[in-house]
Amino acid sequence: MIxxxxxNFKTFESKLNGASKSNWHLLRKEAFEIFSKNGFPKTxxxxxxxxxxxxxxxxxxxxxxxxxxxxxxxVETQPLFYDADAIHVFITNGVVNREKLNQLKVPGLDxxxxxxxxxxxxxxxxxxxxxxxxxxxxxxxxFNMAFSYEGVFIKIHKNTxxxxxxxxxxxxxxxSQNHVFQSRNLIIAEQGVQANIIESxxxxxxxxxxxxxVSEIVVEANAHLKYFKxxxxxxxxxxxxxxxxxxxxxxxxxxxxxxxxxxxxRNNLNLMLEEENCEAHMYGLYVVxxxxxxxxxxxxxxxxxNCYSNEIYKGILDDTSKxxxxxxxxxxxxxxxxxxxxxxxxILLTDTASVNTKPQLEIWADDVxxxxxxxxxxxxxxxxxxxxxxxxxKSSARAMLLHAxxxxxxxxxxxDFLHDFINDEMYNRLD
Amino acid sequence: MLRITNLHAxxxxxxILKGINLEVKAGEVHAIxxxxxxxxxxxxxxxxxxxxxxxxEGEVEFxxxxxxxxxxxDRAREGLFLAFQYPVEIPGVSSNxxxxxxxxxxxxxxxxxxxDAVHFLKHMKEKMALVEIDQKLINRSLNEGFSGGEKKKxxxxxxAVLEPKLSILDExxxxxxxxxxxxxxxxxxxxxxxxxxxxxxxxxQRLLDYIIPDFVHVxxxxxxxxxxxxxxxxxxxxxxxxxxxxxxxxxxx
Lengths: 431, 253
Known about the structure:
Structural class of chain A: alpha/beta
Number of strands of chain B: 12
Number of helices of chain B: 9
Number of strands of chain A: 19
Helix content of chain B: 25-40%
Number of domains of chain A: 2
Strand order of the largest sheet of chain A: 2-1-5-7-9-11-13-15-17-19
Largest interface: A-B, 22 and 31 residues
Largest sheet of chain B: 6 strands, mixed
Order of helices and strands of chain B: EEEHEEHEEHHHEHEHEEEHH
Shape of chain B: globular
Radius of gyration of chain B: 18 Å
Strand content of chain A: 35-45%
Shape of chain A: globular
Strand order of the largest sheet of chain B: 6-9-10-3-11-12
Helix content of chain A: 10-25%
Number of helices of chain A: 10
Largest sheet of chain A: 10 strands, mixed
Distance between the termini of chain B: 35 Å
Distance between the termini of chain A: 43 Å
Oligomer: heterodimer
């Protein structure tokens, strides 16, 4: 496959014309070099031990006519939340709908394509682009950077309070012959900003396809960002998400990752607490069925003292679905007075569903508070009987218990339309 | 109302009930007493439909209908209520939502319209006053962090809200102090009517000072070995269960 991709890269370069001397292209070349050395993760790769994505991609995905330079395509279906009271950005098969983008006028908010940003905000792009998404860390990040062409650039100016959430509607598939889609974000929340950003991922497709996404987010001093991901792909979509969030002093980030469907979904969520007094919350919820496979790798890097991180991931797995959780907490030597908590809990609804969960703590400082815990079990028969003995049907009782199980994550979603959607989907699924 | 005929049941191959016969009519209060391990709680569980138990022989008719094949929820909808010996805690499920779902599914089963929020609240307030339960408990997750007494009180409250025909109180008095016991017993007495019936399963006679039974049955070794009126309970309190055991063993040999 590597030889094929080398050809693709050459073709891609030739289409770039003058841009092939830009800084961006230097990043691409560097990334491709790293990628072509190692390729996609091998079966024995520790980081991908339970998610054999490479084998699946080799078997199902056609890389031969893959090119990041594609024309915008219209998708017939209405994406989720298209009518919500929000700031909407539509990205179809990795291509940003610029027409709709140009109509947006929100004070303190700039949204444009990454290529436009290299003209309009060259300093920001120079400073941040490719600086957090470490191409050495993950092969898919390298692949994404090597073939990066389009993307969304969001700059929220100092002290802006965004009343409405920004929804990035990512949609892949259907009319395209291209089975590989890439997308990329650079989001800068400046000092004192308060904002909600939602990435809503969906797909329509008849054939198998691969979607590879990277987000880089900078949250500057005293800014508050809530960052949601909803992953509701078709059962033929492979989705890889690498997100890198860099936090500066006194900032608060709450990240939410919801996975409801997808053939294989892999999330690598990386939070870097660069300066003191940062607060990072990571919430995750995966409710999957059939043969969906969802893998959440999270990492929070406490680089300095006096930061707080808290992580709660919960999963409900039905049928033959599989879940993977790996939570890394790094507390570096200087990061005294760190508070870091982590919890992963799972309920398996069948004997054929499974979960592999692993906390991974590396603590170099000596004055810290850290805790972690993980559980995997089934619905409690005693609780089920208690509810039924009061006249509640078995299916309602199950739904109530599962709802109670995920409630501490679900309750954290303060955006009503998102909360209600996930809640309803869960109920419908479990009935 | 309830007719149990030659009921045999067990768990994991072990026979526990060995031929129970009992008839309960509307308006009656029956007490079932017996030493530990005699099968009291098994009887309560089998009647409520706990799936771990297997009925190997016999019948249970409730208003003329055989209920042994009914799911636990359908038995409840028919009007059977079990106050648990150990009510489970269910964090994340609010008492309000739980009771409203239960009440409305029972109503649906009976072909009645569901209660709307306003009428449900009114109904709740009424019953709260009746069984003297604190609103604060109802606002919390179901039984979560409740004391033993609060859990039992909550069982009686649920009973009041759901208005069953037959209530089985499984060792509701165990572990209660006298104040809690009085409140629980008061609740039961207030809910008593000529149309419903109560089975009180207990180890101690004390409860029967507050809930006066019409009949007292002694369960021993999976069978009802003696029946009588409330005086039998007093006799048991005085002499303990040993004389029953001796009597039973003598009869057998």
